[in-house]
Amino acid sequence: MTFDNMPAGANHDYKLNFGDKILARIRKAIPSPELRHQALFPLAYMAPILGHKAKLDQKLSYQINFKDGSAPLYLSNPFILAAGANKTGRGIVPMANLGFGGVTVGTATRYFRKGNAHRPRMGMVEADRCIHNSMGLNNPGVEVISQRVKQSLGAAHSKNLSVGFSMAETPGLVDEAERLKELVQSFEMAYQVADYVEINVSCPNTGVARGDLDTQFTEKIFAEVQKIRAQHSRSKAVFAKLSPDLNEAHLRCLLDVVQNYGLSGVVLSNTYPTLQAQKLLQTPVASLPVLAADGAKGGLSGRALYDSTYKSVSFVKKHYPDLAIVASGGVDHGAKAWDLLNAGADAVQCYSVLAYRWFAITQMRKELALKMQENHCSSLKELISNRA
């Protein structure tokens, strides 16, 4: 998203510490990004042994109150693990050891998917501190993940961890009625077990047309979602996850739909589609095998997306103040979280930074606390309340 009238976000940088340098050596020693991704889970289990057991900090805890009447969402801190990191629903509770205040599992489709067949499906863009992902929504299916979330939710809450569920339509389905039927089934299962639900209408890495490019179909999705929410005595927050490459007119159209159909808010944003990634990168796309050779099925995440994230958050807060906003894309410093919260975000999501900063959330929580101290802010609850 490029809005010339929106202020640019300060791309706060950090100095590499000893742990960050060790992590860089690990990236070189383990050549497969997918294998390194799997190392996130044993690291979360081992975090307390390594001296990184996160403690509850009351200064960072608050709740999101939704204008659509959904139940408030409690967060022990504003950092949420973004969808795509935990695709299976396993290992939710240990993520609290890494310092997160929430975890979004998925993205899940109605049934099991292997994802894209080409290899590699993930690549590092070291110079830009980014990751390219063209996994293709590999996951065990929404039913399996729902059961795992249900079994883990109580323990997650005891660790002050909120759990969200990201779901999407099955790529490749042609019949609109079948597409809608599967989405409704997925939403029903996700909604019953999670604290909040993200409807991913913007996945770029399957090579199939995205939902947010078809506004009429998106309207049908949200209409069915609202019917299901109305059947439950307790309304939970529902977010639409949008793409960062939408022009202002298209974004306004989608935001009107989100608001008119009574959703709680938006996640801004998904990964940046491959074909447009070059304008964000210093590294030539042609030199990156995954970006250049996967048939433009993928998306870019990481540091290069931050300016787009900041501008889109500022835009939505200005023009659609009743929508809750979760900022996602390029959040790799606690000062960025502070800036985004001030700009209108209600929480931030992170994923790629975990590959570049050693125990990234621990470091970012400290940086956020420092910004709060510099600005004489005693708590995030105070910040959110005053901003609203």
Draw up the topology in text.
Layout: H1 18-29, H2 33-38, H3 40-46, E1 62-64, E2 73-75, E3 79-86, E4 102-108, E5 122-125, E6 130-133, H4 142-158, E7 162-167, H5 176-193, E8 196-200, H6 215-230, E9 237-242, H7 248-260, E10 265-268, E11 272-273, H8 289-293, E12 299-302, H9 306-319, E13 324-328, H10 334-343, E14 347-350, H11 360-374, H12 380-387
Parallel strand pairs: 3-4, 3-14, 4-7, 7-8, 8-9, 9-10, 10-13, 13-14
Antiparallel strand pairs: 1-2, 5-6, 6-12, 11-12
Helix pairs in contact: 4-5, 5-6, 6-7, 10-11
What are the key terms here?
single chain; 388 residues; alpha/beta; TIM Barrel; eight-stranded parallel β-barrel; four-stranded antiparallel sheet
Provide a descriptive summary of the structure in words.
With 388 residues, this protein is an alpha/beta fold. It has a single domain (18-387), classed as Aldolase class I (TIM Barrel). Helix content is 36%, strand content 17%. It has twelve helices and 14 strands. The strands form three sheets. Strands 3-4-7-8-9-10-13-14 form an eight-stranded parallel barrel, surrounded by five helices. α4 packs parallel to α5 and α6 packs parallel to α7. The radius of gyration is 19 Å and the shape is globular. It starts with 17 loop residues before the first helix and ends with a helix.
Q: The biggest beta sheet, please?
A: 8 strands, parallel, barrel
Indicate the mean pLDDT: 92
Overall shape: globular
Alpha-carbon Rg, integer:
19 Å
Tally of helical runs? 12
Q: Which series of helices and strands comes N to C?
A: HHHEEEEEEHEHEHEHEEHEHEHEHH
Portion in beta strands: 15-25%
Domain unit count: 1
Helical residue percent band:
25-40%
Strand order of the largest sheet: 3-4-7-8-9-10-13-14
Q: Give the terminus-to-terminus CA distance.
A: 25 Å
What is the level 1 CATH name? Alpha Beta
CATH topology: TIM Barrel
| CATH homologous superfamily annotation | Aldolase class I
**What is the SS-derived class?**
alpha/beta
- Regions with pLDDT < 50 over 5+ consecutive residues? none
